[in-house]
Amino acid sequence: MNIVVVGKGGREHALAKKLKESPLVTDLWVCPGNPGMKEGGLTCAPVESPEAIEKFCLEKNVSLVVIGPEAFILSDLKERLEEKGIYCFAPSPKAAELESSKLFCKGVLKAAQVPTAKCAVAYSAEVALRSVREHDFAEPLVVKADGLAAGKGVWVCDSLAKAEEAVRVLGTQFGFPLLLEECLLGQELSAFALCDGEDFVVLGTACDYKRITPDPFSANTGGMGAYSPCEFMNPEDEAALHSIFSKTLRYLNSQNIPYQGFLFAGLMKTAKGLYVLEYNVRMGDPETQALMPRLKTDLAKLIVAAVTHELKNQRCELSSEKAVHVVAVSQGYPQTPMLLGSPISYPALSTLKNQIYFAGVSEKQNHLINTGGRVLGVTAVAPTRHEARALAYQDLKKISFEGMYYREDIAE
Ligand code: AMP
Ligand code: GLY
After folding, report:
1. Which residues contact 255 (CB under 8 A, 6 or more apart)?
2. How confident is residue 155, by pLDDT bands cut at 50, 70 and 90?
């Protein structure tokens, strides 16, 4: 079987590498991929638009396409491919509203009776301001924009002044409605399922580090590192997680919106158990880079079972080892990445014990250079999190480029 993975980041590097291990896969291309992936033995094809990807798949006799980034999930790529008889593992644009509309997501969670924060919806600044003034701020209030906001659409407000400012700023930037949510206190984690429209397997859990520095009020990023599994889940939480995915998929199905694809639950473990903060309709980046190396089950086999609606009775086995992934970014990230275009020095990949996943890189005179915010990351796997962490940092220290920055406290 020939496969295409769509995307060019570290997440797609990890997915493609895992898929390539499968005996079911003959040829695999990452479209468009990046030159770092090529160094790592993958084949990339410089095709980026849905039209070009469709044409490429027809030329190369590709029978399965796995989409990484959300932008392609929201495009017409799946529809185009399926019209041509090519399987595409991704949710439909309607099901993808789980991520692109927090209001839609909240509606699904409530109707499916999945635990989630209480929430009021305000369709105007006047109503929003009236609501925030009724809140007593013994607990913070969370103000959220409805649509996609590149990580800038959620304010956790511990005072009336901040909540009023959030209403003004978010209302101006992203428009109404705004959601006013109860603030959940606890530990955050990411959990992933692979779904076929009706059935699912849980792929596993991870914890990511969203802030640029250890300061919890520093800038929000795409993710500076992750470890897997998340270590504070007990058997009761595992059962609750299963029930969360199961109820969500059953409800969506009952509404004629079968969900096929990766499903990413952003969760809070509170004193009262697991609550869903949000759903994303894709794998997490960088959680995927921590999770994939632990996956023992053939990923291609699972995805083929999903696109043919045969996931029932499939199982997903993970190594009991722990994985730690640390991301290196360009100076100035996330606001204004700078010193771009400088050569990346790294040891021969074959001499490294751990895996480098490349993201914001390109090639100049046969040399990898940094061209993006998140440039690359190293994943190490070991019997304990602390060993994995030490190994990941050991290899990261052998890599350098001008302005390289990484957090020193991932998985501490
Ligand atoms: P979201 O885009 O909804 O996941 O929100 C982004 C981040 O805001 C989450 O990862 C949480 O850290 C925080 N957050 C969102 N909703 C809540 C909530 N109801 N209570 C506490 N923190 C929240
Ligand atoms: N790491 C969080 C995300 O992928 O959205």
Report:
1. none
2. very high
Q: Is the CB of 99 under 6 A from ligand 2?
A: no
pLDDT tens column, 217-266: 899 899 999 999 999 999 999 999 999 999 999 999 999 999 999 999 99
pLDDT band at 150 (very low <50, low <70, confident <90, very high): confident
Q: From the CA of 207, which ligand is nearest?
A: 2
Q: What angle do CA 161, 153, 183 make, to 5 degrees?
A: 60
pLDDT at position 350 is 85
> Over pLDDT 90: what percentage of the chain?
96
Ligand nearest to the CA of 225: 2
| Mutation pick for ligand 1 pocket among 121, 264, 277, 281 (CB with most ligand atoms within 8 Å) | 277
pLDDT surpassing 90 at residue 358: yes
Does ligand 2 lie within 6 Å of residue 237's CB atom?
Answer: no
Q: What is the pLDDT of residues 31-81, one digit of tens each?
A: 999 999 998 899 999 999 999 999 999 999 999 999 999 999 999 999 999
Q: What is the pTM of this model?
A: 0.97
Which domains are present in the chain?
2-90 (3.40.50.20), 118-181 (3.30.1490.20), 187-307 (3.30.470.20), 322-396 (3.90.600.10)
State the Cα–Cα distance between residues 356 and 166, nearest whole angstrom.
39
